[in-house]
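Q: What structure does this chain adopt?
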Amino acid sequence: MTKEMIVKPIACIALLLAGMSVAAHAADFGPLSLSGFGKDEIGVANNVGTVDNNTNPPPICYGDPREVLPGSTKCRPTSLGTVTTPTPMFQLTANLHHEFDNGLKIEGVLTKRLRNGSNDIVGQNWFEKYVGISYPSLGTLMVGTQLARAWSRQDAFSYPIGLSTAWSETGAGFGLFPEAVRFTSRTFFLPIGKLTLEATYATNHSYNQYIGPQGPDLSPTPRMLELFAQYSNRDNLIEFTFETSHGAGQSSWGKGPFVGASNLPVLGPGGAGGTTTNVYSSLPRQSVAILEGDHWFSPQWMLTWGLRHSYWSGEAVTCGYVTNVGNGQPGCLYPSQGFNYSTATYNGASYQPGYSASTNDFLLGLSHYRGLWTYTAGMVYLGRGHTSNPTQWGQGNWAVITNLGLYRKMPEIYRNLSIYGGFGYVRFGHLGPAPLSMPSNGQFSGINPWVSTSGETFTLGALVTF
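A:
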């Protein structure tokens, strides 16, 4: 790691700290409260997959992000380099609320989150946008755009140990429900601790941008059920999340929004006449079960752990736009992205059906608190997949992601300011496509298993809350 690679990130953080001395405190204006955070983070990674002798990132092959089909080899990286990535982020939440004398409370919540000046989740203008009503003896009902527990709670456990990307942004969960109804029970006080139960039903519009000859009427309406339970006592916080869905576009990006699939049914090629025949049709289904928690050995020592099982039914690659190519024959451009697919043949022509798959992943971390300082160590293991797919789509690979972190509160500058840094190490089982639980080959700072089985990362950041 060169001197420039260290000095440049520190300079950027220093500029951020200079502006934080005038940061606003959380604001309450009667029934309206404003809260949020701002942070700037610089990441440096080596053994990053590049092309053109370390001058450019690899191109994107639409419909084949893992570059597993023969035509996508041109999108694989061909060289290794070192890349520095800034990640400024800002979030603001407005909460308008009123509580009546009998304890009944109503509220409306709007949350906006920006990353590098754009929506944190592409295509989603609001991080949260819901109204809620609660009564102490019954619970809370919320309707509107809400964060999925599968992502938000995984992020809450893994972010403090520097493994948010590795844990909360992988697996078969979803991150955001654009249209959801959620009921959270009151807290039940048991002899051995406290228990809260919750159920969420989510849906969204069917995919409506399909421009092929079949039209959007073939796209399903996605539907989701998420169950959540939280238990706590003096020494433990334990949470269980279960999601099951159908009709949604499949991925292993655990932060992705819940949107409709764009490629149903799977239309297999016909005979010499060129007509299509519905030879394979399946409503995409996926689910995730997550058990995770914190255990306090003492006020100074905390253990973080997590277990996750992901399942995907598989989703085929189909054409989103059919036109005539140069030789006058029908061709397919911009295919709809599938999940865990392979090339098959029907009537002498090829197509790409999906195959079901499952994975098991693990999280383990340790935190030590000492005054203003926090020291952390953690790891995520993304396991091999179980599937009958004859194509190697990543099911034979695994990954271990580790991080050593250091955090310090900075009350000398601002009471809600902290700075942090971390050294990470990524290790893949072998060269080839990334494990199924990863959404893309370059998920971890661009370290791509097509060209490197390992890489190191360095992170330096500053965070202020208000």
